Hints:
single chain, alpha+beta, Glutaredoxin, Glutathione S-transferase Yfyf (Class Pi), Chain A, domain 2, 2 domains, four-stranded mixed β-sheet, 8 helices, 4 strands, about 10% strand
Amino acid sequence: MAEYTFYTNPMSRGQIARWALHEAGADYTQVLVDWRAKPEALLAINPMGKVPTLVHHVAGENRVVSEAAAVCLYLAEMHPQANLLPTPPEIADYLRWTFFAAGPVEQAVTARALKFEPAPEQKGMVGFGSYERTMTTLETHLANRDYVCGPRFTMADVYVGSAVDWGLTFGTMPPVEAFVAYAERLQARPAYKAAKAIDSALIAEMKK
């Protein structure tokens, strides 16, 4: 049995987790999830039926992790030899920007896609304040550094980088120089290429 069972769909946030698995060098078996007929095994461990869901088979037990950001950080912890964890000076940026991407960035992008723009008096009620403020905040952070924590790639870049990569691909984030340059650095990574090739092939097969 592989170390992990990975429930995913290539047209989902499962792409984030697959990239994280490859960066960590983890041994996994994939279970492809059909949106119309979700496996009972998935619903038993994650009643929301969401992907990605990861099951870690270790020490005689099955540890279940869902939510793409949590999957990324968990894999970094379980595979310290991959050198994806932050050093003590990097921890603040590592946690701050991973959760900034999981919170304000995703909320801002989703709200805009759903054509919801908070009125001035509502900005204090939503976690992202405004789309423009959120994008500018992330752009400012990435403008003068190679990666989230500085000159070194960490697992935070898998999650934050996935948000930027996806946002540029689908036009939900502005193609500013800081985002484009950051995405290009990530796209050059062998693990990114390997994971993306698998999901791209699966998507092509589904469209036949």
